[in-house]
Structure formats: structure tokens, C-alpha cells
Amino acid sequence: MHPRAASILDRLSPHAHRAGKAAARLPLGLAALDTSLEGGLTIAALHEVRAPAARDIGAAAGLLFGLVIRLMAQTGRDRLLWVTDPAAGMDAGLLYPDGLAQYGLDPARVTLVTPVDLQTALWATDEAARCPDLAAVVLHVQGNPKRLDRVATRRLMLRAQTGGAMVLILRQSGGEEATAAHTRWRVEACPSAPDRIFPAGIGLPRMVLTLERCRTGRTGAWPVIWNPKHKVFEHGQTEPHIDPQISVDRPAASAHRPDRADPLGGVMDLRRTPGRRAPVGAGADGQECTADRGP
User: Fold this and answer.
1) In a 3-state reduction of DSSP, which class is residue 17?
2) Which of 137, 135, 183, 171 is nearest to 156 (CA)?
3) Which helix (H) or strand (E) holds 134?
4) What is the pTM of this model?
5) Are 54 and 174 in contact (CB under 8 A)?
6) Longest C-alpha distance within the chain, in Å?
7) Residue 270: CB partners within 8 Å, gap ≥ 6?
8) Positive or negative, the Cα torsion across 114, 120, 122, 127?
9) Among 42, 48, 232, 244, whose Cα sits 20 to 30 Å from the Cα of 27?
10) Which tens digits make up the pLDDT trace of 255-283?
11) Per-residue b or e along 141-179, where b marks 16 or more CB atoms closer than 10 Å to that residue's CB
12) 42-235 has which CATH code?
């Protein structure tokens, strides 16, 4: 980071807020978290959500979906732009429309951008943050790329303050890093509690949210459960056991299904021997396969 560039961005940042006007905040609906955030997340700002391991990316993305749903309801803006760095997309895949609908997001209101490289992804995020019609802009990155330094994140912060949209960095398999984000969250997926009505079924999505950095100086960790009926987050319990306070519609049970798929049949090995090209229809040992080739 160039010292002069950082200094200029620091001087510009305060001008994004008008004197005497408090920044609008988004309550999360969780008393303990909202108290630590002094009322909620600043809407026109940059925030970071970090999944320390690849297995946590689903929970981290679910947190963002829940935030965006509340943001759309509060601001009246109903569009989301999601930018995926190619490196992150290769590992975690892309958004699934049916999954978005289950969270309460209309897939038609979500624009997915798949740039060719990280530089283009940063440019797309920077431009989208200016749009006054967007509720939020998400930048999904892999690890800790050098291009996403403090100068780049301060630029995104300025764009968010000017355009009014919430800009979110979704960092997959990345470590802690100093950025200009107002808050930085670590999301870790946890085992679901057994279903009270059907213990053999699928429990509610459960995660632990850790506030690693906040402008207010307060941090903490909280177990959280996603309520699929009311589309809200609720306080969970530290240990995965039955919570009698939760009584909502559960996902459909998947155990003991009478229409299970048939077991797999025989498997044919079609790998080729290194350094020698096998003829068409030959197996790894070069012998002709006897499998049925169809009509």
C-alpha cells in the first residue's frame, strides 16, 4: 500500500458522511449482536465475512443471504449484485437459484457476475457500488489476494458511502487481514441440533458468528440458528441439543425414504496407461473392453 494513497483516502472518507446525520443501520434481530454493533450494521459501508475453511463457505453465504433479505425489506431496494472471483468459483461453485429462493431471495433480482480475473472483479464491484438501485454488492474472493489491499478496500468503502449500498466481501479460506471494513466476521458451520419432532430428520442450519473487528471496539462470538419459516436468525445454544424455544417448520425429512435410488452397478476402469495412448474402447491394460456399447 502506498502511504500517500492511503493518506488521501483517509482524508476523503469523512466527507462521505454529512455532519449531524447519523448513518443508517441494519439491525440483525439478535439482541446480543445488535448491542455490540450499537444498533446494527452500518448500511452504507463495507463489511467482511470470512470463512476460515472451505467447508464453511455455505454457512458464510447463508449469513449474507439473511442480511440481504433484511436489507431489502428495510431500504426498499430489491436488487443484489454478486461478483465471484474465478479462483473462488472453481472451489465453491456458483449461486443456485433454488437455494436462493429457499432463503427468500427472488433469483430474478440477483445479478451474477463472473469476471475473467480478480482485477476485473474489483472493477465490477467498484462500479456496482455506485448504483443507487442496488441493496448490496457482494465480492466473493479466494484467500488473501494482494490486489485486495487496504487501498482497494478503502475505495470500496468510499463507493458504499457515496452510493448508499452495502458492500460485502465474502472471503473464502482466508486469514485475518487489515482492511477498511467497518466489521469483520468469522463464520464457522456447526452440527445442527436434533429435530424435536423428528430426531432422525435434518436439523436447522447452525453456525457460530465471531465478530473479529468492529469500529465500536466490541467483539464476541455467538451461536446462531437460521429460522427457515420466518426467514430470520435466532440465538442458538453452544451445545447441539434440543432447544425447546424453537418451534418452526422443518425441512422435509429425508431418512427412511421408500423411493431410494437403486445401488450402483459395475464400474469400468477406462484410465489410460501413462505415456501410451490406448485404442478406442480399450481399458487401462490395453485390452478390448467387452462392455455393451449400445446400438
Assistant:
1) coil
2) 137
3) strand 134-142
4) 0.74
5) no
6) 82
7) 283, 284, 289
8) negative
9) 244
10) 455 665 566 555 555 555 555 554 444 44
11) bbeebeebbeebbbbbbbbbbebbbbbbbbbbbbeebeb
12) 3.40.50.300
